[in-house]
Structures are given as C-alpha cells and as structure tokens.
C-alpha cells in the first residue's frame, strides 16, 4: 500500500490538487483545514490552561489555610467533584444540561463551554499540586513571614506560593501537556479541533494513515514545545541549594 501525502494539497470541495498546497480565493485545502484545526486545539488548550491555573492556585491555597476548616472542606469538595467526574461527562453536562437549566447559557458558544469544562476539570488536579507544594515547604517559612508582620495573604503572596510553584513545575509540565491531549474530547460537541478534522478528513479522502500521522505529528510538536518552555521556566526559576523538607508547610 502506497502513501499519498498530496492528499493535504487537495481542495476540500472538488478534490483537485492545489499548487503550493494552500488554497486561494476562498478555496480550502486539507492542509488549510488541518492548520485551522490545530489552531482551535491550541486555543482551547491555552484558554482552559489559564482558567485551570487561576482556579487551581486559588483552591489549592484555600485548602492549606490554618484555622479555616469550612474553607478547607469547600476546597476539598471542589477537588473531589471535578476530579472524579470523567471529562467527557463534564463536557456533555456543560453543553447539554447547563444551557437547559440556565437559558442565558444557550447563547454561549460551544468553544467557551468546552474551555469551562476542561478548565474546571484540570483546576482540580492543579489545586492538588499547589496544596502539595505548599505543604512540602518547611513550617518555618510560614512562621517567618508572619513574624515579619506579613498578613496571611502577604505570607502566601511573597513567601509560600513563589517557592511552592518552583517545586511543582515538573507536575505542572505534565498537566499542561495533558490538557492539550484532553482537548481532543472537544470533538464530541462539534468544536473543529484536530481530532474532528482527522475523523472527517479520513472519511472524505480514505487516507486515514496519512491524516492520522499528520495529526499525531501536530500533537507531538505541541507537547514538545510545552516541554521545552516549561523546562526553560524551571531552569530560570530554580533556587540554588533549595532543599525541601516534607509535610509541614500547610499545617
């Protein structure tokens, strides 16, 4: 069986090969379509990542507050809720159930609903990492901040969180790569990302091997880029000589 990579140069309508592989004058080739789908994948992933980082940082921090058992319980409930419901189920809930319960949500684009589902799902995982990072710090760092006259907010802002985030960069790298892979479930609610492109393009062209290899390459390039960016951040943020004593920063 021979491979035909010219499939990506074909016009999506008349299947004629287009010179240069990029459509002109309103024509769209399969290469154009794949790059557009890759853009949607990146957009969904980065938007969900920003949401997950913000919410995960807040929830993870709240779970380490001393003397606030109710706040800690609420943070724990958030993590258990969003971590233990499968992502695909959450996407269907946001896409089909929530707009039914709240009619105002019916005007919200599917892209936004997918970002919410993916961001909330990932926020629970990041919250657990933030909590672990804070609790891994020596107890003396919290007390040192309070002894300097810092408020609890300032102690977290200037002492605990900067060190905790340095500790959790490796698991955050994995979570960032996972969010790109998890974005593939967006095809279930008709977001035109890479997985949907692959399914439709291979059906139209009968060139599944070429299509899926190209899509796989896009995911690999995305994951590798994330890995290198996070490795650079980790190298720049590393504190020389830092030795973390386990299990006391949050209590």
UniProtKB/TrEMBL annotation:
It comes from the Bacteria. GO terms for biological process: amino acid transport. The chain crosses the membrane at residues 37-60, 81-98, 104-122, 211-233. Gene3D superfamilies: MetI-like. NCBIfam families: HEQRo_perm_3TM. Belongs to the binding-protein-dependent transport system permease family. HisMQ subfamily. This is Glutamate ABC transporter permease. It comes from Acidovorax carolinensis. The lineage of its organism: Bacteria, Pseudomonadati, Pseudomonadota, Betaproteobacteria, Burkholderiales.
């Amino acid at each position: 069986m021979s491979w035909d990579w010219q499939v990506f140069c074909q016009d999506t309508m008349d299947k004629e090969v287009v010179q240069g592989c990029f459509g002109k004058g309103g024509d769209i080739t399969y290469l154009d379509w794949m790059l557009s789908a890759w853009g949607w994948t990146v957009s969904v992933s980065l938007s969900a990542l920003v949401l997950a980082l913000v919410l995960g940082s807040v929830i993870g921090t709240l779970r380490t507050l001393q003397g606030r058992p109710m706040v800690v319980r609420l943070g724990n409930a958030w993590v258990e809720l969003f971590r233990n419901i499968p992502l695909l189920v959450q996407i269907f809930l946001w896409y089909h159930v929530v707009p039914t319960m709240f009619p105002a949500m019916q005007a919200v684009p599917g892209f936004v609903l997918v970002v919410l589902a993916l961001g909330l799902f990932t926020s629970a995982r990041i919250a657990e990492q933030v909590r672990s990072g804070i609790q891994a710090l020596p107890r003396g760092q919290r007390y040192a901040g309070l002894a300097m006259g810092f408020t609890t907010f300032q102690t977290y802002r200037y002492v605990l969180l900067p060190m905790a985030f340095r500790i959790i960069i490796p698991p955050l790298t994995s979570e960032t790569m996972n969010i790109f892979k998890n974005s593939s479930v967006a095809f279930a609610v008709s977001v035109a990302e890479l997985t949907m492109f692959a399914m439709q393009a291979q059906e139209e062209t009968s060139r599944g091997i070429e299509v899926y290899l190209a899509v796989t390459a896009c995911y690999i390039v995305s994951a590798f880029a994330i890995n290198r960016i996070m490795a650079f951040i980790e190298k720049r943020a590393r504190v020389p000589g830092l030795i973390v004593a386990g299990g006391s920063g949050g209590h």
